[in-house]
């Protein structure tokens, strides 16, 4: 078996609660995650480093190093369901300055946890042949200890 899987069956959930510790155990202790329904595109997430360059005049060569990191942005595309518990929390989070906890459960059992601020919940009105949808922008954050995305691999 190759270990490659599709994204079919992936679940993304949200909680207003912050973990006691920014590790797998801390996130697993959050019991009120609400699955966000009707997601059609889960977007990308992952740490990105800023490039730092140094150009000494004596050899003209550019040296490159990693600088600060950013856990990035994530855009969710979804069909609007005003009765969906996860979408209700997501919509309310737009007007809240707090970080929210997110859980991404993949088909094979791996899990990603992270904190994010919900920056937007933009409704889209398409054509007569469109489903009423929204685009949600998340800004992933980092704890004061530098912990961002917590990956838990399936056993």
Automatic annotation (TrEMBL):
Superkingdom in the source lineage: Bacteria
InterPro entries: Phage_TTP_N (IPR032494)
Domain Lambda phage tail tube protein N-terminal: 58-132
Name of this chain's protein: Lambda phage tail tube protein N-terminal domain-containing protein
Gene source species: Comamonas odontotermitis
